[in-house]
Known about the structure:
alpha+beta, elongated, 4-stranded antiparallel sheet, Immunoglobulin-like, 3-stranded antiparallel sheet, 7 strands
Amino acid sequence: MSLIRWQPWQEIETLSRQLDRLFDDFTPANRTAAPAAHTWTPAIELKATDAAFVLRAELPGIAAKDLDIQVTRAGVSITGEYRSETKNEDGKFFRSEFRYGSFRRVVPLPVAIQNDQVKADFTDGILTLTLPKVVSDRPKVVKVNLADAITEPKLEADSNHMPAETQTTHTDDVWAEKAA
Length: 180
């Protein structure tokens, strides 16, 4: 009997891939009329500052000319294509793990932005978009000055030394006393 080496991390990674595929089947993007091949989507980071959102997308190996970025007040759409090199080479691939083809990533934003003020930078495969927030959506702090507040006059008690709030007529109706 030979011993088989157990590799728990490999089994966990396999289970993780199987769960990802299972949950991918439930997403609305995969419920199209024609079944699509598994596509790649770029990883993103979305950071909020007081004045803007900063969206970073990881797009290694893609040319800027192969990207289409569209920004609305409510979200960002990044579409692109990984193109295969068209060199005439002898031989055929034995194995290729490079990704080729189109991708699309839509990122909804939690608040409206000024989509005509967006700044973009694409350096070393990292796309950085600075998305300024709409001015009215920024939190506004208002200082209330209590020195100008009007104070109400205090009610005085009568000769019975009872507080004014407890004095009522025999019907316990506050307005009955004025009507009589």
